[in-house]
Amino acid sequence: MHLGTVTLAFLAAIASIHASKSEVEIQIDHAVECERRTQKGDKVYVHYRGSLKDGGKEFDNSYDRGKPLDFVVGEGHVIKGWDQNLMGMCIGDKRTLTIPPEFGYGNSKVGPIPASSTLVFITELVGIQGVDAPEVKASSSAPNIVDKVAESVKTAASEAKKVAEAILVDAVDGDQEHMEL
Fold this sequence. Notes:
Residues 41-129 form the PPIase FKBP-type domain. By secondary structure, the chain is an alpha+beta fold. The protein has four helices and six strands; from the N terminus they run αβββαβαββα.
């Protein structure tokens, strides 16, 4: 019986170690089509909001400062969760990164961030040094509202003309009495 308890404790320890080896979750909030995506060695400009997954308390926000963070991707200047997961983005892309401690600050307390915290960053790539922003293309499938309204007015006017002509024909014939509506 004692051996069973030790075995279960050992298996539970292995499972908890395996469970802690989680990965960064990436949610694409806004995707842009482009020819040039971020790659290792690019100097990038990123706006972000950082918060704790537990409780949602915001600890940093580049929008409030009015200036995006700039750094070279893939060279270890930022936490691993950013370094590895901001590659392959187009200027204008927005991603939400949920970063476990192993890819964030680990067991260290950093400023208002408690040790072993899972972090949530809402990120927006606003620039890549030396790369022009892609042109925003209007969706060809999106209907032009002005054309739709103009067509509706034209159709309504045509139908009103037909009704008016029918009333005039009836009035000219004089065979029918005028009735109040």
